Amino acid sequence: MGQAHDVLERARKAREENRFEDALRDHLWFHENALLVEPAMAGVRLSFALRDWIYLGEQFPLARRALQGLRDRDTARMLAGAASLQLFRDISAINSALGDERATQELFAQLDIQMPELAQQCAELALPALVATEDFALARRFLAKPQERVTRLAEGLNAYTRELARSGSTSSAPTLLAYVLNYTKEVRLILEVLRRQGDDEEAAAVSAAALDQLESPALRDAVQREFDTPGSTIAAMVRHAREGEGQPAADTQ
Predict the structure, then answer these.
(1) 3-class SS of residue 166
(2) What is the pLDDT of residue 237?
(3) Rounded to whole angstroms, how far apart are CA atoms 162 and 52?
C-alpha cells in the first residue's frame, strides 16, 4: 500500500484511540493530497474516507466543521469560475456525507444559470440531490432522453457480467451485487422524476427497458427482486459475506 492509504489508516487508528486532532489532520491531508500520490484512491477518497470523517465528526465536532469548511471553500471557488466536473463531484460527495443535499441542489441551480454547459456535465451527479430536495422540474429538464440513459446504465452492467462470466470467477459476487444495487438505484431516481412530473407513459417505458436490456436472465431476476423488495440486494451481500466467514445463512434474517 502507498502513502495515502497509510495516512487514511493512521487517521482511523487515531480516531479509535481518541486522538481526534491527529485524526483530523490526517483526514485533511488525505482529502487534499491523496490523488497526487495515489490516483487509484479516487473512489476511496469520496466514499470510505468521507464516511470515516463523518464518524470522527460525531465524536469531535471540529472535524465536521472542517469538512463543511472545505465544502464551502470549494463551492465558492466553483461559483467564482474555477469550475470543473471533478470539483462538483467533490462537493456533492461531501454534501451527501453531511446529509446536506440541499446545498448540492442550490449549487447546481446556480450552475444552471451561470454555466449551463457545465451544469449539463454535472447533471447525473446532481440527480440524487435534486430528487432528495424534490426539485423535480429542474431534474426533468436534464433528463431529456431517459431511455438512452437507462440503456447506458444497462450496457455497463451487461459488460461487467460478461467479463465475470469469461473469467469464471466466483469471488466477485459481492461486486456484482453492488453493481445491481447501483443500477436499480439509478433507475429508481429516473422513474421518480418522470412520475413526479406526470410522465407516466415514459416511466412505464423506462421501467420495461431497465429489465429488457439486461442480457442475463439471472441478472434480470436480481434486478426485479430489488425493484420488488428494496433492500434484498443488500441482504444478499450480507448473506454472502457471512457464508464466506462460515456463518449459516439463517443468521442474516
Answers:
(1) helix
(2) 67
(3) 34
**Where in the chain are the domains?**
3-125, 146-252
Query: What's the average model confidence in pLDDT over 62-76?
Result: 97
Q: Which of 88, 87, 92, 26 is nearest to 53 (CA)?
A: 26
- List, in sequence order, the alpha helices (H) in 38-169: 42-45, 48-59, 61-79, 85-98, 101-114, 116-132, 136-141, 146-167
At residue 71, φ and ψ (nearest 5 deg) are -60, -45
Condensed to tens digits (0 to 9), the pLDDT of residues 111-159 reads 999 999 999 999 999 999 999 999 999 999 999 899 999 999 999 999 9
pLDDT confidence tier of residue 90, bands split at 50, 70 and 90: very high
Determine the residue type at 221.
Answer: D
pTM of the entire structure?
0.85
CB atoms within 10 A of CB 214: 22
Cα dihedral sign, 47-228-192-145? positive
